[in-house]
Design a protein that fits this description.
Blueprint: H1 2-15, H2 22-33, H3 43-46, H4 49-64, H5 66-76, H6 83-93, H7 101-127, H8 133-148, H9 168-182, H10 184-194, H11 202-226, H12 236-252, H13 265-277, H14 290-304, E1 310-312, E2 315-317, H15 319-346, H16 351-362, H17 377-403
Antiparallel strand pairs: 1-2
């Protein structure tokens, strides 16, 4: 899909007035399919309409997920869907088994299209104040899909900085980011819960608690670090509104209403942490996931009380699940450190800026310090690989571990090793 997208992007723009290089086309396609949002070209200025439409299709397919899109295509064509494909889809969505996987695919696609269409309506009315009807229609559709898929691509050169003092556009975009970031399973369960048909699972409760906690924690810390700096000149309500938006978009989407490059060092560090945590399982976003972070924090809290058994909402969490969360977190941190090392070896730029780009690529977020377009070919290749690894590689690695979950039959005597 990435290669086909790259060929289309390069071909359409090669025939246009503003051709882009094959490497930039590959970078843009990877960023779209991996719903990252890092850009080496100006989407609204440098891409012709056909390239923008191709980019939007890649974002939509990437947001739904390759397995979801493939399964839905077979469903439409009335083709049989094998047990292996059902299992792969179930694993990606966080389901315990393949039962009901095909019905869930149809619901996911329907839910996605309905949410994106409804959200495009208020955006259209805002955009139509400053542009023609056709341009505002395209702009509203593009940003609605990009926001729900947590991609962060914008047709505006400064992302959403032009709406930093507005209410409606940031509100709609935040709403879409949160809906796309909590995951399709959570959205479906919430719908069933509101109808009184189903109780919320532990997964959904954990996702909601961690998501809300991170949004308000991130906003509070950003307010403390940026109140008299980046936020200077805004009214108090607008300061609060913008830090809320920044906290929401930092974990998954990559839109910005304030210039990211002007963040303080502490503010940039906080956003890097939020980008690492990311969205929730089965969602359109990336990162190590909110459930992973929630399990690690909860496990640490229980261990400080001398209790090795993790209990959430009167349910015991298996130790192997906690260990898998630890492995995922370690893998992400190790990849980030390795990526920062590699990028600093090939680029002569600010360490903070390069580290920020690496975390944004691995977390498939898309926020940037403005250095992505100026990277060397080697630097762009590094970010391409990191985006792909962040979206597909780590997940595939964990699935392979889940498939080979066999404990050793041999038991050895315990030993003690001093730590700390």
């Amino acid at each position: 899909m990435i290669l086909i997208g790259a060929l289309l992007l390069w071909g359409f723009n090669y025939l246009g007035d503003m051709p882009i290089s094959p490497l930039d086309a590959l970078f843009t396609s990877t960023s779209a399919v991996c719903v990252t949002g890092l850009a080496v070209v100006d989407t609204g200025r440098d891409l012709v309409f056909s390239s923008q439409a191709t980019l939007l299709l890649l974002i939509q397919l990437g947001g739904l997920g390759v397995m979801t899109a493939a399964t839905f295509t077979l469903f439409l064509l009335r083709r049989p869907i094998g047990i292996r494909q059902r299992l792969l889809f179930a694993g990606g969505m966080g389901l315990e088994g393949p039962s009901g996987a095909v019905r869930l695919v149809a619901r996911i696609v329907k839910m996605t299209l309905v949410i994106e269409c409804l959200a495009a309506i208020p955006l259209f009315f805002v955009f139509s104040e400053t542009m023609s009807s056709m341009d505002s229609l395209w702009c509203s559709i593009f940003h609605s899909i990009s926001a729900f898929c947590n991609a962060g691509f914008s047709l505006f050169s400064d992302s959403l900085e032009g709406y930093a003092t507005g209410w409606l556009v940031p509100a709609v975009v935040m709403f879409l980011i949160i809906l796309g970031g909590v995951g399709f399973i959570v959205l479906w369960e919430l719908g069933e819960w509101f109808r009184g048909r189903k109780r919320l699972s532990i997964h959904t409760r954990l996702v909601l608690v961690v998501t809300v906690s991170l949004v308000f924690f991130g906003a509070a810390v950003l307010a403390l670090t940026e109140w008299d700096g980046l936020l200077r000149g805004l009214s108090v309500p607008m300061k609060i509104w913008n830090v809320l938006f920044a906290s929401v978009t930092s974990r998954t989407a990559g839109f910005n209403t304030l210039p990211t490059v002007e963040l303080s060092s502490l503010g940039a560090f906080l956003i890097m942490i939020l980008m690492m945590i990311g969205a929730s399982p089965g969602s359109t976003g990336g990162g190590m996931k909110t459930t992973t972070f929630g399990l690690l924090v909860s496990s640490a809290f229980f261990n400080t009380r001398g209790d090795s058994n993790l209990v959430l909402w009167h349910r015991s969490v298996p130790q192997k699940l906690v260990l898998r969360a630890m492995m995922l977190a370690f893998l992400y941190v190790a990849t980030v450190l390795f990526g920062i090392l590699l990028l600093n070896l090939v680029e002569d730029m600010s360490f903070r800026s390069l580290a920020f780009e690496v975390v944004s690529a691995i977390g498939t977020v898309g926020l940037s310090m403005g250095v992505t377009a100026g990277l060397s070919p080697a630097g762009k290749w590094i970010l391409i690989l990191l985006m792909f690894w962040g979206r597909v590689g780590i997940l595939t690695f964990l699935f392979s571990l889940a498939d080979s979950d066999e404990s050793s039959k041999v038991s050895y005597a315990e030993t003690s090793i001093p730590i700390g």
